[in-house]
């Protein structure tokens, strides 16, 4: 019997404050150059999607956030042949914990305007970075009640 294929489940956050987005500059293990991404990471065993997105944002940016909406799900096949099922949430920034260390591989967290992010498209982690920002800017956001977690 062959092993069953499973995509990697990830979460990402579009965090908005004062017309800026919270972005992460990171150094992926599989490349030699930094990339720009939303705070994002893998769902861990035993956690809900909402818990995962809050944890990932805190670990990668030092910001405590509250999810306020659901921007959707994307199936993404990365150049390394890994497939990701990425759930993206709209979040509000609550509190920065400036005394915390950032996750390994994170160079820094930056508040950026949309036009700045758009100009840096060549260094985005994937095309999803701009796609979810455009979705947010178009007002395409579902309520969290669509997420069923038990």
Quick structural summary:
This protein is of the alpha+beta class. The chain has a single domain, classed as Alpha-Beta Complex (Nucleoside Triphosphate Pyrophosphohydrolase), CATH 3.90.79.10. It contains three helices and seven strands.
**What is the helix/strand order?**
EEEEHEEEHH
Reported by name, the CATH topology is Nucleoside Triphosphate Pyrophosphohydrolase
Question: What count of structural domains?
Answer: 1
N-to-C terminal Cα separation, in Å?
A: 32 Å
Q: Could you list the spans in which at least 5 consecutive residues all have pLDDT below 50?
A: none
Second CATH tier, the architecture? Alpha-Beta Complex
Counting DSSP E segments of at least 2 residues, the number of strands comes to 7
The pLDDT mean sits at 95
Question: What's the helical proportion of residues?
Answer: 10-25%
Strand content: 35-45%
Alpha-beta content class: alpha+beta
Quickly count the helices: 3
Identify the CATH homologous superfamily: Nucleoside Triphosphate Pyrophosphohydrolase
- So what's the overall shape? globular
CATH class: Alpha Beta
Radius of gyration: 15 Å
* Major beta sheet summary: 7 strands, mixed
Provide structural commentary.
This protein has 150 residues and is an alpha+beta fold. It has one domain (8-138): Alpha-Beta Complex (Nucleoside Triphosphate Pyrophosphohydrolase). It is 19% helix and 39% strand. It is built from 3 helices and 7 strands. It has helices at residues 49-61, 114-119, 128-137, and strands at residues 8-17, 20-26, 35-37, 40-42, 63-77, 83-96, 106-112. Strands 1, 2, 3, 4, 5, 6 and 7 form a 7-stranded mixed β-sheet that branches. A hairpin with a 5-residue loop joins strand 5 and strand 6. The chain is globular and about 55 Å long. The termini are far apart. 25% of the residues are buried. The mean pLDDT is 95.
